[in-house]
Amino acid sequence: RTTMKSLRFISAEAFVSNAEFARKSLGAVAHDLFPLLFKASYLLEQGEVVHDLVENWPLSDFNMGKLLGATLGYEEDLSHRTCSVCLESCLTGLRDYVLNQSSPYMKKLKVVDLTGIKDVEVQFCKCKKTMGRWARTQLLSKLCSDLLVYLQQAQCNPGTFEVSINVLIDLFVTERNYELVVQALLKKCNCPLKICCVAFRSDNLTLQKFFYVIKLTVPSLLRKLEIVHNVHLEMEHLEMLFNRIHFPLLMSLTLPARTFNVQRFTATDEQMLTNIGKKMGEMTQLTELSMSFSILTGRIQKLLSPLKTPLKMLDVSNCSLNHADMAFLANSFHANHLEVLDLSGHDIPELYPSTFFKLLSHCSSVLRSLALEDCNIQDTHVNMLILGLSPCQKLQEFKFIGNPLSSQALKHLFTFLCELPMLKNVEFPVPRDCYPFGTTYPIDDASVCRFDHQKYERVAEELNLILLQANRDDVKASTPLFGSYDAAVQETNNELGAYLIKSFKETLEKFTSSFNKMS
What we know:
Structural class: alpha/beta
Radius of gyration: 26 Å
CATH class of the largest domain: Alpha Beta
Shape: globular
Mean pLDDT: 93
Largest sheet: 13 strands, parallel
Low-confidence stretches: none
CATH architecture of the largest domain: Alpha-Beta Horseshoe
Number of domains: 2
CATH topology of the largest domain: Leucine-rich repeat, LRR (right-handed beta-alpha superhelix)
Number of helices: 19
Distance between the termini: 70 Å
Number of strands: 13
């Protein structure tokens, strides 16, 4: 779909397309045209012009989300273009704004907001090279540190030290960029560019380093906290975190796998869980909670009942929930507000069909995303599922990978899904009849790719034809066998892979050493 451009935007494109001319002429450009020229330069990937626009930015704020979002001149949203050329030019331009020898009275910039940048799977920029959240964290931290070193060594205009710009960013810290980020945060007071962390994600980090860096971020300003994968945070560490640090503005919390395990709970652990629930209850802004792959059987009420604000997003996938947990969710005040719900990894038809459908009916008026992967949904359950999903008229995303459904059942379900007006994304399973006879569910990782690929392709074509015949070519249907795209994981997978190999090697060495001692 081609997006219409206004005459004003076309003129801006013509102006910035000749980089040399544009850079020489910026001094004569009206200040209110800078946002228009910035978006045009970003669209055309004119890195040098992007740099110079930022270096000479005449306004008091610079908000990437708004500058690249839908505007009157050009309605296409470019905030999902994490173009490496443009973003690097933008950040180095920000450094050079500070060093620019123009009068400090000319410098009005006070706030730079980088949080509106969205990391997506498919990039449309010509360079095809992206700068993800981790790389943005790395580059901004390096620029802040380099800037301080330069200011201390060079003879700068005294007015340079009066420049103070808050740079709002979503930080992503791992072992590999930890030292750089810590140095930038420690020296924040002296640096003209002041990193203000709005969202924080940590992966592949020791607990000691995590606790140290989280304190430096000014937790009282954090809106989103993601502690994932290779941060070995368990329940006692979480209680310690909440006791030591307050998160009054926190809206979204993601905890790593195995944070909770009620199978080995003692009376002390029960009290700990109660304390964690109370601390979460004090976070009056909290509306998004993800705690997948923990064992929480029978404890959902204890954890969620203290919350004073209804949750809009809840991920309790693979948490071994029982009937009491599902009954609490269905009857809680959260149910009417849930926009995003993930109950994957639970045998819903067998354990609590009526309670689940009660929960679904309560959130149906607001539900946007539903994940029911590996839930043992079979052909005999499809009609009931259709009945439950029918009122979900705002549903945009439905994921149900890993369920033992036949080709015929999938066609029946797709015919219904065409009727959901807001639906945009469907993740469906490889049909059961594409796997060898006798395959058991859930299918293990070793067997998940052992299916008749030609037959699958034929069925996938038929399912897409159902969408096309219903004029629903706006719906993307796919089968991501190993999970949906995760920009953060994709960006750091080399580091995480190296960490896993190192961990495996250490485990093997310990095992060999123990075995040798026994021998």
